[in-house]
Design goal:
6 strands, binds farnesyl diphosphate, 237 residues, alpha/beta, globular, 7 helices, single chain
Length: 237
Amino acid sequence: MSTIPHHIAIVMDGNGRWATQRYLPRVAGHKKGVSALRACVRQCGERGVKVLTVFAFSSENWNRPPEEISGLMELLVFALAREVPQLQAEGVRVHFIGDRAGLSDKVRAGLVQGEAATAGNTGLVFNICFNYGGRWDITQAAAGLAARGEPITESSLASALALAHVPDPDLVIRTGGERRLSNFLLWQAAYSELYFSDKLWPEFDEAALDQALADYATRERRFGQTPEQLGRPRKAA
Ligand code: FPP
């Protein structure tokens, strides 16, 4: 089995602290975060990762100062317009995951355009979670099934989730030193390996990604089974 994860998901935490440490506005940290993300997309593709999912704006981020929220919205529209041609050239297919109802017409148009421009691509699948929360996703999936009068089972619910087009993440990375999921991929991360980095997201470079991949390669994934069932010797306690 390949030791490269098929699907990596990332909580890109630490942009604000990166900026504050430099006496810059928080939005400057998010801008730097976009550059780190751009490089990470390329590096994941080069290493054979098939799916990358990132948490760009959570359902809870609406509680931030208004100027930071508008800065993030503008950054998304600007970054999309600037980056889509390059993503296109690299064969990356972009999907936006989240509640679009709460977004402005301008932001929604940017999302639709980004998805449409890359819809024919067959390379890395790049899911950008924007106005997303794991609880929102489970709720919208259950509400959709109920409205259609369909039974709620593990498999019907899984197919109604916003990330049903990709397998669950093998590896969830969180930067910025915190060790929690913060409402990210609550359903899909059930069996994911978790990796926490103390690096702030703008500093999460190629070496840091390779360190996360090397750590992942040492993990024993059992999905509830015993080592013996998987034909592996039990590790000493
Ligand atoms: C968390 O850092 C990061 C975010 C809330 C936004 C992540 C967004 C980007 C990397 C760029 C935006 C991406 C797109 C596609 C527009 P934080 O602000 O919580 O940092 P802190 O914990 O240091 O305060």
